[in-house]
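Help wanted!
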Amino acid sequence: MTVSTTFTTQDMRAAILHHLTYTMGKDADHATTYDWRMALSFAVRDRIVDGWFASTRKSYEAGAKRVYYLSMEFLIGRLLQDGLVNLRLLDDACEALTALGLDPWQVISNEPDAALGNGGLGRLAACFLESLSSLGVPAHGYGIRYEHGLFRQSFVDGRQVELPETWLQQHHAWEFERPEARYRIGFGGDARDAGWDPAEAVIAAAYDTPIVGWQGRWANTLRLWAAKPVEAFDLDSFNRGDFVGAATPEAMARTISRVLYPDDTTEIGKELRLKQEYFFTAASLADILRRFEMEHGDLRKLPEKVAIQLNDTHPAIAGPELVRLLHDDNGIPFDEAMDLARSTLGYTNHTLLPEALERWSDHLFGRLLPRHLEIIDRIDQAHRATYPSSSVTIREPGVVKMGELSFVMAHRVNGVSALHTELMKSTVFKELNALHPDRIVNETNGVTPRRWLLSSNPRLASLITERIGEDWVGDLEQLSRLEEHVGDAGFLSAYAEAKRANKADLAAWIEAEHGIALDPAMMFDVQIKRLHEYKRQHLNILEAIALWQAIRAAPDADWTPRVKIFAGKAAPGYHFAKDIIRLINDVAEVVNADPVTRDKLKIVFLPNYNVTLAERLIPASDLSEQISTAGKEASGTGNMKFALNGALTIGTLDGANVEIRERVGEENFFLFGMTADEVVARRKIKDHAAKAIAVDPRLAAALAAVRDGTFCAEEPDRYAHIVQNLSGPDYFLVSSDFTDYWRAQREVDAAYRDADGWTRMAARNTVRSGWFSSDRTIRGYMADVWGAEPVI
Ligand code: NBG
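Answered by r_m:
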């Protein structure tokens, strides 16, 4: 079923022109870039569809176990280049477009970046779908077709401004609407003995996007649900002249799939959010059971044929909903229904931050989902009856705890890095782990090498292929075969040249888009991720301020020129994080204008961070900032992308940094800061921040500059609260880790001055990062959680 290799540039050209004419209804003389991009997308999509059907047929023929990945977020980014790369049609497409007189990259980059996620959790889901397809595992992703993805970020006077994101304003080339796949999803009303009469309902309507794997050998489906009204339109109201009233049902229903909640660590306790969660989970389960019954019939075989993974607690309602479907709707005894549901479900925890473990008021919960609340109480009672000495509860007076619910209703619970999994066992799920010692497993995150190396870093990818052939694309651990080349001067200089060229491209792009000139010889020091106090962008900017002050004090010393590049969004309601963005922008303005330091230190905050920008930045980075307070970053996946692309990490022993360091070698990693245990101990020391500041004059001076308005003369007090925080409570221990961070940064400077030594370290990062492929992660889930097998 491999995609035919006989598809040529000629065929591609004909296919593009065909779709331009008959799908877009344009002739070549009047076509816009959008028309050409859509025509190309349809031409590529055609190539995917045959393999997609074949995969579906094979899954049915094999009667294979299917994996269902339920996630509120799929941060898929652009799909055209992905499709071209995985089908190996990129060269043909570029040649065909060039022959048609077009700039291929202009056409390919016309695609909007589908931002149906906030950050790592959503991007992980997208990498997993691609790996599931590359491995040939029958799988579906299920999520929400948000009309508006994550907000578009711009800066006004250095401040973050949020604008609506409009990816669906243009037709989405990759999706197929499925009018036959519609489910009625109820809310509210009354629970009655083993039943439920919802008071209102909406329709969940399916839209399918094929996700093609490496070499087009397999394609799975991402099914996203849009909410629609049961009755499209209230004609009575309209005829009475009440036009607004007539449109109300539609507007109310649509609200459910209108926007992605712009927060990835704290939950907004909103009714709408709970509705979104139930909406997509219930639609997905109904769809899963429909497919299962068609194929296998006997619901008691569900766990043999179906594995459902809950991506964080957002779909946690799947536990009680599945019990409801099995028991209320299909008459299976309650306890058996509970066991069947548990054997089918797995739960992935992505954070230990207490504010992110969802809790709902039982009042709200009972109002929206009265029958589910009853079921949850029965689950809770059953668990307590089995473990009478335990104090674990799912429901407490006033609240329903989704973390506990997910744990109790899943046969496997996993963390996303070794450290995170151990912390889960010893903190949030300590008691549950003692009751169910085999339930928690670790599945360290990974990233797909197709997008994050082959497609986004073609220079490095070709160098690797030149040396070891191209099997590494489907088996990333083969990168270790490059180990012997790391001693080879020819390889190293080609490696350095690829990085240099990537940096030159990025510099040219930044100059063209943002008018900031960067010298590619400077070290590109990059921190890109959501803004959060635990991720400590403020530690990074404080170090930049201290460095600026040090350079000013001794301008002729032997400084290592560097540019600090930041990108990332803050949740709109997270004021402290937004102030950190503004501080970085303010500092950048002053530092970049300083003639004394200009050639040695630059600071750039690129707006509107998204997957596409990450693909641009990571291949061009020298230094990867992974500086979270130890114990707080569950895993990280950006850290893996950087290491794979030959950026050295400066980082704490947090999340997957620990495993990255173990694999790339401690001599190829700049470690600093307290460990997770030391963090806990340090917090107990009275005045820990003040004590740290008292012994480090650099930190004191940097904070003083922030405090006295050096970066905001027009409003000197603008950042007083930040300084106050870092001098007082400093929960994330920025001040206490500063001194060691400064030390590690100066080691980075020294290492970078030895260009050959640096390249060797960078190359070792690439060569030893093969384990961080999401193919490896998926194999882990298959073996430890799903019991699923590939079908190719
Ligand atoms: C995030 C963690 C990251 C981790 C990703 C993917 C949430 C709730 N968690 O450290 O913060 O890499 O999940 O596992 O978004």
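OP: Thanks! One thing I noticed: The two ends are 10 Å apart (CA to CA).
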